[in-house]
Write a structure and sequence with these properties.
The protein is an alpha/beta fold and about 300 residues long. It is built from twelve helices and 13 strands. Bound molecules: iron/sulfur cluster (2 copies). One iron/sulfur cluster binds next to helix 3.
Length: about 300
């Protein structure tokens, strides 16, 4: 791709989060890219699922002034029981959000140009340097916007900035390999080895994910594995043991595996966006149970297994 073509590249993002400490080593800036081919029941970022620009009303901020309703050229907005409802005639013109004096209409899905994004990421370089951090592209599934990544990652490298991607691994192997070779660390999410459970919980087969995982293990590219631990879904001892076996046999000695507990703080986001949230009744995992799963995961041969977000 030429420099001229790169100038026209844009990414659709939902957020740029500075000072992040949970998306790789050190202090990082995380770019949440919009769009994901998976539909994990426990997704904590529902605003990143669709590639389209989305709007959500925040009733707690709303002062009920009616400016949004007056500004809508489509008559697409209605007052509902739990706040504003965006009808199907909405054209995403964003007039309502711009006119809202209380900032009670959130917009997810801003288009950002390559140079503009790079400028803002490079600005935080002193934080990265002093903490051993850098930039992480997350989502959603950042590989859906791989052309943008393949332009941004080398540019960050030229600035001496450490680069991570956080991925489900659900991508064409050629795309995955090309992007992985441009990163300093891959955060690779594995949910379950069981093909039927995987399809049921995420909407897609895990065949491609496991194939890309095995390639990553043999590639020499540094990576960490992240496992969402959801009681009743992925938190069974036998599920974790099967994952540990796969990792040990197909990915080699892994530097670090993070077992990530789950909370339902995202339930409000689902409601705001008018999406159904099916995991309302799932209890938080206890520390004892997490520690037991940590022990099992040590069987993979990983140098380090961390646990977080337990009751
Ligand atoms: S984005 Fe535009 S069309 Fe959609 S509800 Fe707001 S003002 Fe109406
Ligand atoms: S313009 Fe903003 S504050 Fe006023 S009714 Fe609409 S959402 Fe609420």
């Amino acid at each position: 791709m030429t420099a001229m073509q790169n100038q026209d590249l844009t990414a659709t993002i939902t957020n740029i989060q500075p000072l992040s400490t949970e998306d790789g080593p050190g202090i990082r800036t995380t770019v949440f890219m919009k769009g994901c081919p998976l539909r994990c029941l426990w997704c904590q970022n529902p605003e990143t699922l669709s590639m389209k620009t989305e709007l959500a009303h925040e009733p707690l901020r709303c002062i009920d002034c009616g400016a949004c309703l007056e500004s809508c050229p489509q008559g697409a907005l209605q007052r509902g029981e739990r706040g504003l409802v965006f009808g199907s005639s909405c054209r995403r013109c964003l007039s309502c959000a711009e006119r809202c004096p209380a900032r009670a209409i959130r917009v997810f899905g801003e288009k950002v140009g390559l140079e503009e994004l790079l400028d803002s990421l490079i600005r935080d370089k002193p934080f990265y340097r002093h903490s051993g951090g850098g930039v992480t592209f997350s989502g959603g599934e950042c590989l859906l916007q791989h052309r943008f990544l393949l332009a941004a990652l080398p540019a960050l490298k030229a600035e001496g900035i450490h680069r991570c991607i956080d991925t489900s691994g659900y991508a064409d192997p050629k795309v995955f390999q090309e992007v992985a070779r441009e990163t300093d660390l891959v955060l690779y999410d594995l949910k379950t080895i069981d093909p039927e459970k995987h399809k049921l919980y995420t909407g897609v087969s895990n065949e491609l994910i496991l194939e890309n995982a095995a390639w990553l293990g043999a590639s020499g590219i540094p990576f960490w594995i992240r496992v969402p631990v959801i009681p009743g879904y992925t938190a069974g001892a036998e599920d974790i043991a099967a994952l540990a076996q796969f990792i040990g046999e197909r990915m080699g000695p892994v530097e670090r595996i993070d077992l990530l507990g789950y909370n339902d703080l995202c339930a409000a986001d689902y409601e705001r966006m008018g999406l159904e949230y099916t995991l309302k009744e799932v209890p938080r995992i206890t520390k004892e149970e997490m520690s037991r799963l940590q022990e099992i995961m040590h069987g993979s041969g990983a140098h380090r297994v961390t646990i977080s977000n337990y009751a």
